TrEMBL record:
Protein name: Lipoprotein
Signal sequence, renumbered to the chain: 1-22
Organism: Aneurinibacillus danicus
Taxonomic superkingdom: Bacteria
Keywords, ordered alphabetically: Signal
Length: 142
């Protein structure tokens, strides 16, 4: 009986790499298309990445806002808005202390998918009484 268990264990060990590879290939079989949009103002830079899974109506969006100036400690009460997606994206941060940027993740299913001609506008308000708006332009497809 012990011999039979050892043989079965050896078979499982030999099968493990094959099963791992098969599961990885299956998980990666869905093709994805990523579109990247970039824009900037005097003080802010934004990168929007939209990831569409081919053959579906699902899309994930990631917005990254970065403050460009050296006086990042003076930036607080930040409110941002992205228009151009099916639903408007907005958020707020108290300050930028210890942050290299603001990252906002969202996704949708059954929404209007982005393409190379999609247009987006980012508006950032921050204290004291500062506001900038700028457009994001398509830069590449991955």
């Amino acid at each position: 009986m012990i011999r039979a268990v050892k043989k079965a264990g050896k078979r499982m060990i030999r099968l493990a790499p094959f099963l791992l590879c098969a599961s990885l290939l299956t998980g990666c079989s869905e093709e994805q298309e990523t579109l990247v949009y970039v824009g900037q103002s005097d003080n802010w830079k934004a990168i929007l990445m939209t990831v569409h899974t081919q053959g579906t109506e699902k899309e994930k969006q990631v917005l990254r806002l970065s403050y460009k100036s050296a006086d990042i400690d003076s930036v607080y009460n930040i409110r941002y808005r992205l228009t151009g997606l099916t639903e408007e994206v907005s958020g707020r941060e108290d300050d930028m202390n210890n942050k290299t940027g603001i990252v906002y993740h969202t996704d949708c299913s059954g929404c209007a998918l982005t393409d190379e001609s999609s247009t987006f506008t980012v508006t950032v308000d921050w204290s004291p009484n500062r506001k900038e708006s700028f457009s994001l332009q398509f830069v590449r497809k991955e």
